[in-house]
């Protein structure tokens, strides 16, 4: 065999030995087996607890008042055309509800409006003096007034509402965050106001840090039978003379200060009530927790006042229908001389 052949044979033998050695080592490793992995504790993994606890929905909106028929004006602001008379009370009375588009602001107070009508009371929606008659004339025939858009009331209209309260008319202001200036003006006679900013709670809420729980803060006709309500966007309410009706939990924070505290979100004094949220009146929230009971209490509050009948325009609008036109004296004409 030549030297070249011997070299090739030696190389082949070396590669064969190396291959056999690698295979043998791999077989040995496999025979020793894969080391056991440590057990992992999974007790903390409970998918059923991943979602927040659901708030139970309430039932029907109760209103057991035997008050005689009242007329309630509900102000929702502009944003939709007014319409005609939509529905009648089912008890055969002649109380009626005036409404517009079902998709506009009036929809968001539908549960309150229908509760009043179904119990024999009249409801009239008011947008502004351009779409309707002046507010002073509207309130002259009303027993109560509700607004969910106080920022859209003019300064003159706010003064008229103050006079309406002084005359014994019931007023409920449902003020969302951002309405502090208008609420201060409306509630100045009773020292009632809302704080700037909004409330939030990161620790305890109804599926959103803005959806707060509130509980009764004392004896009030607005919270009778209420254990807990849900407010989707709330402002803090203050009062110098009135009674706090609802408060949040102590870990609620105010956006302008971020200070944790239990904040008042409702108050009332005499014939005036302020609630720092209007979302509880909407159909999708009306039956959340005890919101249905709160709405029923608001309806009861509105129809249980005693107006004096002394509120209204100082001077009648338009001519007196019974007045007679003044007698006209005949006009004497002089003859014209012909040329």
Characteristics of this structure?
6 helices; alpha/beta; DUF4350; nine-stranded mixed beta sheet; DUF4350 domain-containing protein; 16 strands; Rossmann fold; 339 residues
Question: Your description of this structure?
Answer:
The chain has 339 residues and is α/β, with parallel strands linked by helices. It has a domain at 71-303: Rossmann fold, CATH 3.40.50.880. It has helices at 3-32, 110-118, 135-140, 155-166, 180-186, 291-303; strands at residues 71-75, 85-88, 96-98, 122-126, 144-147, 170-174, 192-194, 199-200, 212-216, 229-231, 237-239, 243-248, 252-254, 260-261, 264-269, 272-275. The protein has a nine-stranded mixed sheet with strand order 4-1-5-6-16-15-12-9-10, sandwiched between helices. A three-stranded antiparallel sheet has the order 8-13-14, with no helix packed on it. α2 (110-118) packs across α6 (291-303). The longest helix is centred in the first third of the chain and has 30 residues, at 3-32. It is elongated, with a radius of gyration of 37 Å. The relative contact order is 0.14. Mean pLDDT is 79; it is low at 80-102 and 315-323.
Could you write a compact summary of the structure shown?
The chain has helices at 3-32, 110-118, 135-140, 155-166, 180-186, 291-303, and strands spanning 71-75, 85-88, 96-98, 122-126, 144-147, 170-174, 192-194, 199-200, 212-216, 229-231, 237-239, 243-248, 252-254, 260-261, 264-269, 272-275.
User: In CATH, what is the homologous superfamily of the domain at 71-303?
Assistant: Class I glutamine amidotransferase (GATase) domain
Can you list the strand order of the major beta sheet? 4-1-5-6-16-15-12-9-10
* CATH architectural category of the domain at 71-303: 3-Layer(aba) Sandwich
The radius of gyration computed from the alpha-carbon positions, rounded to a whole number of angstroms, is 37 Å
Q: Could you name the CATH class of the domain at 71-303?
A: Alpha Beta
Largest sheet: 9 strands, mixed
Total of DSSP H or I helical runs spanning 4+ residues: 6
**Helix-and-strand structural type:** alpha/beta
Order of helix and strand elements from N to C terminus: HEEEHEHEHEHEEEEEEEEEEH
Question: What share of the residues does DSSP label as strand, in percent?
Answer: 15-25%
| Quaternary organisation of the protein chains | single chain
Number of strands: 16
Globular, elongated, flat, extended or rod-shaped: what is the shape? Answer: elongated
Distance between the termini: 166 Å
CATH topology value of the domain at 71-303: Rossmann fold
Give unreliable regions as ranges.
80-102, 315-323
């Amino acid at each position: 065999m030549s030297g070249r052949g011997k070299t090739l044979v030696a190389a082949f033998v070396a590669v064969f030995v190396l291959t056999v050695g690698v295979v043998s080592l791999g077989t040995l490793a496999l025979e020793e087996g894969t080391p056991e992995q440590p057990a992992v504790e999974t007790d903390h993994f409970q998918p059923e607890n991943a979602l927040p606890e659901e708030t139970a929905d309430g039932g029907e909106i109760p209103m057991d008042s035997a008050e005689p028929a009242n007329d309630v004006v509900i102000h929702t602001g502009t944003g939709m055309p007014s319409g005609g008379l939509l529905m009648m009370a089912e008890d055969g009375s002649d109380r009626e509800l005036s409404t517009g588009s079902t998709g506009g602001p009036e929809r968001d107070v539908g549960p309150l409006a229908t509760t009043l009508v179904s119990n024999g009371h009249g409801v009239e929606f008011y947008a502004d003096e351009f779409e309707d008659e002046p507010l002073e004339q509207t309130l002259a025939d009303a027993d109560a007034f509700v607004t969910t858009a106080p920022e859209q009331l003019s300064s003159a209209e706010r003064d008229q509402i103050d006079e309406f309260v002084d005359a014994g008319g019931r007023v409920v202001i449902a003020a969302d965050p951002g309405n502090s200036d208008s609420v201060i003006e409306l509630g100045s006679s009773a020292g009632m106001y809302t704080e700037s900013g909004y409330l939030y709670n990161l620790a305890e809420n109804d599926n959103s840090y803005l959806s707060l729980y509130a509980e009764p803060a004392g004896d009030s006709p607005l919270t009778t039978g209420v254990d807990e309500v849900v407010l989707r966007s709330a402002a803090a309410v203050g009062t110098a003379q009135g009674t706090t009706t609802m408060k949040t939990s102590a870990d609620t924070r105010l956006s302008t200060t971020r200070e944790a505290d239990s904040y008042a979100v409702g108050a009332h004094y005499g014939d005036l009530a302020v609630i720092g949220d209007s979302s509880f009146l909407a159909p999708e929230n009306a039956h959340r927790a005890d919101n249905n009971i709160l709405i029923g209490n608001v309806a009861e509050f509105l129809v249980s006042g005693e107006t004096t009948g002394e509120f209204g325009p100082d001077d009648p609008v338009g001519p007196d229908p019974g007045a007679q036109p003044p007698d006209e004296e005949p006009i004497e004409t002089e003859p014209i001389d012909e040329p």
